[in-house]
Amino acid sequence: MILESSLALRRPFRDRSFGLATKFLRINWLFVLCVVLLAGVGYAALYSAAGGSPQPYAEGQIIRFAGMLVVMFAIAMVDIRVIARFSWPSYAMGIVLLLVVMKFGHTGLGAKRWITLGGIEIQPSELIKLFLAMALASYFKRATPEQTGHLLFVLPAVLAIALPFGLILKEPNLGTAVITAAVGCAVMLAAGVRWWWFAIIAIIIAILAPVLYHHLHAYQRARIITFLNPGSDPLGAGYNIIQSKIALGSGGFFGQGYLHGTQDQLNFLPEKQTDFVFTIIAEEFGYLGSMAVLALLFAIVTLAFHTAMTCDHVYGRLVALGIGTNFFLYCFVNLSMVMGLIPVGGVPLPLISYGGSALTAVMLGFGVLQSIHVHRHVEFADSGDF
User: In which band, very low, low, confident or very high, does the pLDDT at 9 lie, cut at 50, 70 and 90?
Assistant: First the structure.
């Protein structure tokens, strides 16, 4: 496996049993600091999006974050071997929730993506990415190179990716569906599945692109056309990205100043509290502020991958890599979208964009990631882990 290449050079597994206080100290506090700082940036941006008021975005978001930060610490205290036992049950629950969305989900902007459980609105497509990474890690954690090179062994993992991909695509939510598939593929590649199988699939998709384009929804085709030529409909489909680029450029090197961004405060920016929240940061804090936020995002991804590379057990390495990949793709797709590098896809910027579902999913993933970090040297027995 790719992430096992240096396993023979490492020290042997150490099964450590330690108390909650020791576990708490073993948390990656640099990672926690970066997460808290990023949430602080989100609060400032959402405060500005409301015209200099904590309502209706910033206050609710920071309260949700504080609650999920407690949940993250609680999950970090749980032995990763206990969490591992729930990998496939969690995946099954995620699939059930996606099916429930198809039948009873709330419709917004022509898509069914949300359901209400216990008075809380959730988006199962955000949760399934974590559950998928956990399930695939459980499947591949003891796979041999011979098994990962055999198509029949890999086929169940492919089906495990295809099922949520199809359900999310049906909502429709193309951006999240693609990210879900990409997270699954990243875990499979790290587990040792042949890279050229994915290359063949990519080539086939590229060849079939014209056919697939005609099967997209009308609004999805409009987004592609707008991406290629935003000026074709400057007051309609192209309005969002045009205003986004104006805001990005108007910030200059130092920015226009906090709460003084013209595009933001004059309400030219579309969806400024959700998908286009980065434009507020760029306009008000300029190039320097934007680079500082990018540095925070990069630090979180790097620390997630560091946990993956320093973990002694395959399950933890694969899950940590999946969580890091998911966070990276969140950031890459959102930032590329607001800069006009890819079509608009409705993917939030994690911990900054307003919304509970993405924040909840990300923080749950971070809780599992910290459990892996705390328990990165424990030994998985030959049986009974799952």
Answer: very low
Q: What is the mean pLDDT of residues 277-297?
A: 96
* Tokens matching residue 35: 């997460």
* 3-state secondary structure string across 57-82: CHHHHHHHHHHHHHHHHHHHCCCHHH
Domain spans, the chain: 2-374
The CA distance from 363 to 360, in Å, is: 5
pTM score: 0.91
How far lies 66's CA from each of 62, 281, 285, 318, 362, in Å?
6, 22, 25, 28, 13
The per-residue pLDDT for 89 is: 97
CB 101 within 8 A of CB 113: yes
